[in-house]
Amino acid sequence: MKGTGKYIRYLLFWGIFAVILFYLSILLEPKENSEEAGVALRDTKGMLLMGEPKETIDVYFFGDSITFTGISPMQMWEDTGMTSYVCGQSGQKIVEVYFWLRELYDAQTPEVVVLETNTLYNGEGAVFEADYGLGETIQYYVPAVKYHNRWKNLHWNDLKKKPNYKERDLFKGFEIKREVEPYSGGTYMQETGEKQKTDVISMYYLDKVKTFCEKREIELLLVSVPSPDSWNMEQHNAVAEYAEKQKLTYLDMNLYLEEIGIDWQEDTMDSGIHLNCAGAKKVSGYMGNYLAEHYKLTDHREDRKYKSWEKDLKRYREVAPDVTDKGTGSES
Question: What is the pLDDT of residues 16-28, one digit of tens each?
């Protein structure tokens, strides 16, 4: 009997602890999708997507800063009528992609998920990534851990207020960079049979992303945005091998610079790491046409449900006339 009582007390303790964590998570969770409300700066792109009307985003883009400086969803809307969003983070890791995909799937049901492949090489070794992955798992299932610092700014309203994700991003996750600093390193995609493998934990989470998409009949597209500082043929070969084995489509735009029209004297902001807005315009045009040609994506430009996108495009042209071919007005 004593052993049974000890077992019951043990279960009771952990049960109460779980209930406390559950309600703490509800209490500490930011009630708005903004940095001011407690959202971490690196998470704002994903959280701002939640302000979009439900079931209106066809394509998710995941990746690090190479992605959110190189892909403009508003340009692709203007060109093709498809709706997309860049759910990027600085230095985004593939484990973060996996958990963001799970979280954002509740807000939208994308038809295509585009994964920019540099995220596979943002790891710091299997041991570190395993530890990082454990942390991300805990934060996903127990938000109180992720938002524990918010207790300092809690108000009585947090006890009864429900999340209201109303903030939206005019640029849909894209960041405009106008600086010009040429790349002068020459050809960087030399032919080779070598492969630059990534760590086993990153591959584990890549498999989980793939499985998540397959179970929900979402197309997964692997893409490499032009970046001579961050990409090479050894990495291309490793990703191409994985894509072939897993029957995935892989588009490496570093191999199509001439078709895209990239000029490294004008199209990079920092000597070949990131594209500037001139380069992003070219890459986004190419990317939008590629998606329109290879996937069954709907042109929503005549659909009243997507009226907000036309309003956003008008404002986008006003705020960033130099980024659009049809821009008018002045920057504000």
Answer: 655 555 555 555 5
- pLDDT at residue number 153: 63
In single-letter form, the type of residue at position 11 comes to: L
> Quick one: which of 29, 207, 28, 175 has its CA closest to 103?
29
Give tens-digit pLDDT for 151-201: 556 565 655 567 777 888 999 999 999 999 999 998 999 999 999 999 999
**Could you give phi then psi for residue 234, rounded to 5 degrees?**
-65, -40
CB atoms within 10 A of CB 133: 22
The one-letter amino acid at 59: V
**Amino acid residing at 273:** I
Contact of 113 with 221, CB cutoff 8 Å: yes
Q: DSSP letters of 122-185?
A: ----HHHHHHHHHHHHHHHH-HHHHTGGGGGG--GGGGTPPP------TTTT-----------S
Burial of 164 (0-12, 13-18, 19+ CB in 10 A): exposed
> Angle between the 126-141 and 94-104 helix axes, to the nearest 10 degrees?
20
- Nearest residue to 331 (alpha-carbon basis) of 319, 323, 322: 319
Q: What is the pLDDT of residue 137?
A: 85
Q: How far is CA 295 from CA 84, 288, 326, in A?
A: 13, 11, 26
Q: Residue 116 forms beta bridges with which residues?
A: 223
Whole-angstrom distance, CA of residue 98 vs CA of residue 102? 6
Q: What is the DSSP letter of 268?
A: B
Query: CA nearest 220: which of 123, 130, 329, 294?
Result: 294
- The residue ranges of the chain whose pLDDT is under 70 are 1-33, 37-38, 143-161, 324-332
**The overall pTM is greater than 0.90:** no
In sequence order, the β-bridge partners of residue 221 are 114, 249
For the chain, the first-to-last Cα distance in angstroms comes to 74
